User: What shape does this take?
Amino acid sequence: AVALADSPVRVNQVGYLPDGPKRATVVSSSAQPLVWQLVDASGRTVASGATAPRGTDAASGDSTHLADFTSYKGVGKGFRLVVDGQSSPAFDIRAGLYSPLFSDSMSFFYQQRSGTPIEASLAGAAYARPAGHLGVAPNMGDTQVPCQAGVCDYSLDVRGGWYDAGDQGKYVVNGGISTWLLVNSYDRAARAGTAKALGDSTLRVPERGNRVPDVLDEARWELEFLLRMQVPDGRPYAGMAFHKIHDANWTGLPTRPELDAQPRELHRPSTAATLNLAATAAQCARVYAPFDRAFAARCLSAARTAWAAAKANPGVIAPDSDSTGGGAYGDGQLSDEFYWAAAELYATTGERTYRDAVTSSPWHTSPDAFTSFGFGWAETAALGRLTLATVPNRLPAPDVARLRASVVSAADGYLTTLSSQGYPATIPASAYVWGSNSQVANNALVMGVAHDLTRQRRYRDGAVEAMDYLLGRNALGTSYVTGYGTRYSHNQHHRFWAHQYDASLPNPPAGSLAGGPNSALQDPVAEERLPGCSPAACYVDDIGSYSTNEVAINWNAPLAWLAAFAAEHRHN
Ligand code: 9MR
Assistant: This one.
């Protein structure tokens, strides 16, 4: 018998939806089809068939076969797929598989909250901790943060928000895309008529029972922080947003948030951060209006001010070199951020200024709004496109039709990429960059939107099948989500969830997505352990490998979006 971890039969280790695609990847150099058998928990063969040889997969270097058991309509727990005498790990076939993943992937955000205690009753005893960065010694705190030398001569209260990742920095660029994705997850479900599952008291958040959908409660925690990062009236660069706030020097692992003794500093405002604020605050004004008019109005006013400030200061670029104590999040190309912010402001207000900014942007017609690598914190044109293609607006009908067609054609491309490879990744072999799992998820989410627009099953199936990749049907036969699967990532890079370095601290909580394979090997552990790796195999579940194995808000956000999407289809 083959050890499960080494099984050549790669499946979604969490399982398959009864009405979803059910495929496995088999690593085999056989040129001939192989017999597969689907075996239930009692050992009975309930279906069988032949694999299709697929040749060598470029991303992983593996020779693969495809086993397709989609036509099996039974449900149950503890199935295995047996091929050539080798068994896959056990998996379920049942509806409702994705509901726990949705709530756990959202709890990740609660547990990344800064400036509030993490409660045992919500997170579990092992994950409880005192509030971080409220100025209680030894914290210098985020309640009165001074600027870096020469940037400003005052301090600002920028408490709250989510820690970005394994570090305790807070970055407006990256907070922006992450918040947008969570709010969009609710907004699209509301249009699809499925928002009940995202409603009040559906998540483990302190705001349960306030009559506001819990996803929006969670996203508001970050929105309040983003609003605090806006330069106040009467100050230089008023209306812009500070780019980021983090420790003066990188802290070691482990560092509990409440024990971080480093000084915190505001880094100078940037046009990119300002446009992230404009976009997310404009989206906030639209989506929160039914729940809290005053908050929505505050968001709209901040968004307008930020837009005007960005127009007045269009080229204040955060430098790539600013990476002491925190990530740089540098981005020299801001036409896509302008487009995204204009799109959100237009969808919310319908005003001519913003419409003109949308229609005069090269991104309004560019075929490159959706790339094979997928959108990301520095590539935000797709977010504007998705909004204008889905949120009712007054662009001329042919324009809206063209935008919708661009989403669907992008989804077709991702579907082709997924189905033409050995493993169901939505990215090509060349796209295994830092955070590649988020690129897989972001492209899958575009397929989800294409399903919303067309109701065509293949797009929903594509989005669900991409989950197979994240949950074990991949080159390493491992699930990249903690707590999900028979073998999963659990040593992600994090200063508090640092069990690998300090046994008194927990591993990452269930629902934490690892960054994933990164062929550039950008940390010492990856350099030492992964030389010569095939792109899709350049991953190590070690806390030191921050370039392959960190967690981050912009990676968990599309996971949560997809989990919500996959959870809502329960036809049988
Ligand atoms: O996700 C970011 C990735 O695109 C960059 O290549 C990388 C290096 O600049 O930084 C990543 O973001 C990290 C950030 O700089 C600091 N917090 C942790 C983030 C995830 O690793």
The chain has 15 helices and 15 strands. Residues 164-165, 167, 169, 327-329, 434-435, 546, 550, 552 surround 9MR (CB under 6 Å). The domain at 98-395 is CATH 1.50.10.10 (Glycosyltransferase). The two ends are 35 Å apart (CA to CA).
